[in-house]
Amino acid sequence: MKIIFAGTPEFAAVALKALHDAGHQIVLALTQPDRPAGRGMQLHASPVKQFALDHQIPVAQPVSLRLDGKYPEVAKEAHELLQTTPHDIMVVAAYGLILPLSVLNIPPRGCLNIHGSLLPRWRGAAPIHRAIEAGDSETGITIMQMDQGLDTGAMLLIEKLAISTDDTTGSLHDKMAALGGEMIVEALRRLEHDALPATPQPEQGVTYAAKISKEEAALDFTQPAEVLERKIRAFNPFPAASASFAGVTLKLWQAQVVAATGAHVPGTIISADPQDGVVVACSSGALRITELQKPGGKRLPVAEFLKAFPMQGGKFD
């Protein structure tokens, strides 16, 4: 099939590669404008753009697709490009821009979205983070027919994926990206044979995965240890869970829930041992932190970290 692909991060690039490898003709890649990143804040192309350029796929990077938005001329130009680019269908994965009805109506066979959850649970921007944070035991990929709502379209293909107790957003992302690539290829195969029935989403069980903010990264030790452990995994690799000790904001990368010995004020460091980790009291239970990072430093296992940053006694602010 001739496909216009819309996506931006690595999750989308994996799907784009799968479609390309399956022999589909990618006639255009839509992706977000280059963003500044790194210490030098130089402009960097998105993973989707990088793949497209490497494979001679035309690229467009409009800042908006809304004709009634802030950039109507840019949106008009993008609409004209979509209308004059011969294609069968549009595939969307983590694009990051709203597709108005005027865009959804352009592709002859509609727009399919690769969504990282078992809809209708976790509609919205951060379904992988929120599933881990909430303690869900499973997630999955839904191939969805797009409509004007926020991830409200009919479901075309759905497959579950277990969430391991040690999964981080990073590790789960990689598994889901691979699954999404496989599923969109299968969905298009079925569509070509008119064997892809649409199922409306149920009205019950709707939840929303709000975009992750950096402010959420700061841990509150008055919460239970199991809640904080899930947050650490959910915010790995972004925005990285953090806590302040002796005026220094530390990033906390790995931790396990353990029983608390004795009564301690939440945030109190019960012990700081190179072998057993930094054990911190919570409102219930305790966290054994085993990988940390100080500002400007590297992620380090606790034994290495404590050599340069002793933490025996004291309390997280």
UniProtKB/TrEMBL annotation:
Domain spans labelled Formyl transferase N-terminal: 1-188
Record-listed E.C. numbers: 2.1.2.9
A molecular function GO annotation: methionyl-tRNA formyltransferase activity
Annotated keywords: Protein biosynthesis, Transferase
InterPro entries for the chain: Fmt, Formyl_trans_C, Formyl_transf_N, Formyl_transf_N_sf, Formyl_transferase-like_C_sf, Met-tRNA-FMT_C, Met-tRNA-FMT_N
Gene Ontology cellular component terms for the protein in this record: cytosol
Binding site for (6S)-5,6,7,8-tetrahydrofolate: 117-120
Catalysed reactions listed for this entry: L-methionyl-tRNA(fMet) + (6R)-10-formyltetrahydrofolate = N-formyl-L-methionyl-tRNA(fMet) + (6S)-5,6,7,8-tetrahydrofolate + H(+)
Pfam family, one: Formyl_trans_N
Formyl transferase C-terminal domain segment(s): 211-309
Family classification: Belongs to the Fmt family.
Protein task: Attaches a formyl group to the free amino group of methionyl-tRNA(fMet). The formyl group appears to play a dual role in the initiator identity of N-formylmethionyl-tRNA by promoting its recognition by IF2 and preventing the misappropriation of this tRNA by the elongation apparatus.
NCBIfam families: fmt
PANTHER family on file: METHIONYL-TRNA FORMYLTRANSFERASE, METHIONYL-TRNA FORMYLTRANSFERASE, MITOCHONDRIAL
Name under which the protein is recorded: Methionyl-tRNA formyltransferase
Source organism per UniProt: Collimonas arenae
Name of the gene encoding the protein in the UniProt record: fmt
